[in-house]
What does this fold into?
Amino acid sequence: MGELKSAWEIAQEKANRLGKLSAEEEEQQRRQKCRQIGQALAHRWLDNPDSLSLTIELSKRPEEEQKLVKRAILSHLLQAMDFKNRSRTSPDPTGYGRSGGVYLRLEKIIQGIVSLEPKSQPLIEGITKLMQEYEWAEGKTRQELESKARKTLHQLRVSGTAVGDINIEAIPQWQQAQQRLVETLEPRLNSLKQELAKINTTP
It folds into this structure.
């Protein structure tokens, strides 16, 4: 954050040397500064959510900056919400039929968005259900591919400890199935994210 502030101060000093800024240029610089602060806060919070509270950090900003910084934080969190950046809350070899298997990163993003914008709760619930649908389908595909792989190995008379754990991620069919799943569900996720973005930009 200090680095971003000093970069802004350097830009301000340059602008001062070039002469007084117009009101429009000053407003543009203020907006840019707030965007940088908001993005830095969101980034820090995603890396370590226990290290700071977004609402407390926001309350420390001057009142005239709070709305712009909040928009920047929420915008950054929305961009980070996708099917690719996931880590499970607990190891689960299949994921099939789990109802509580919410991803850690998604969980962080949801907490951040709801803490700053309580009105987003209904849309957030829709996104959580969509992510769970993705996880369920992913787990089902994993189970089916593992079963096929074991049958193939069994036909080749390979069994027991020689089989071990099958690395599904290395199988082309797994990657293709994942890609199809993302292509099917991503439009719905993007639609919900757009609705969230509208709440974020509402005065």
Remarks:
- Residues 87-102 have pLDDT under 50 and may be disordered.
- DSSP finds seven helices and no strands in the chain.
- The first helix runs from residue 2 to 18.
